[in-house]
Design goal:
Protein name: Transcriptional regulator MraZ
Strand order of the largest sheet: 1-7-8-4-3-5
Number of strands: 8
Largest sheet: 6 strands, antiparallel
CATH architecture: 3-Layer(aba) Sandwich
Helix content: 40-55%
Keywords: Cytoplasm, DNA-binding, Repeat, Transcription, Transcription regulation
Structural class: alpha+beta
Number of domains: 1
CATH class: Alpha Beta
Subunit structure: Forms oligomers.
Subcellular location: Cytoplasm, Nucleoid
Oligomer: single chain
Pfam families: MraZ
Strand content: 15-25%
């Protein structure tokens, strides 16, 4: 079964840049995960199998297309494979913490096929801006037949 990640959580980063995965995500991410830059200045965390499937799709795209090369580089260069420790803590490498502007407070969001990690203010600004568009997006993505 393909994991589905849901909900919003607010763990804290410790002094070593680690956070506790929400308990409901641990079974699906406990064997290993890949953390990389996400869009909108967040981090994206994928189960290893999901990331491998995604990279196979990305690898099959023609590298003669500049946008493909750019995407492949940005995705892979910032990616970090991690395994949560026995307590369910995951390390966020310094470069990824800097990219997402993460300090002690973070927001962890289930985003269907991935988990996202956000700076709280960035998440607040993003979710507020998207609230009005959400209903319209529903109509665009799932048109009435």
């Amino acid at each position: 079964m393909v994991p589905v990640f849901l909900g919003t959580h607010t763990p804290k980063l410790d002094e070593k840049g680690r956070f506790f995965l929400p308990a409901k995500f641990r079974d699906d991410l406990g064997e290993g995960l890949v953390m990389t830059r996400g869009q909108d200045r967040c981090l994206a965390i994928y189960p290893m199998a999901t990331f491998v499937a995604m990279t196979q799709q990305v690898a099959s795209a023609p590298t003669t297309v500049k946008q493909v090369r750019d995407f492949q580089r940005m995705l892979a260069a910032s990616a970090s494979d991690e395994v949560p420790d026995k307590q369910g803590r995951v390390n966020i490498p310094p470069a990824l913490r800097a990219y997402a502007g993460l300090e002690s407070q973070i927001v962890v969001v289930g985003a269907i096929n991935r988990v996202e990690v956000w700076n709280p203010q960035t998440w607040e600004d993003y979710s507020t801006a998207q609230e009005e568009a959400f209903a319209e997006l529903n109509e665009d993505i799932f048109p009435i037949a």
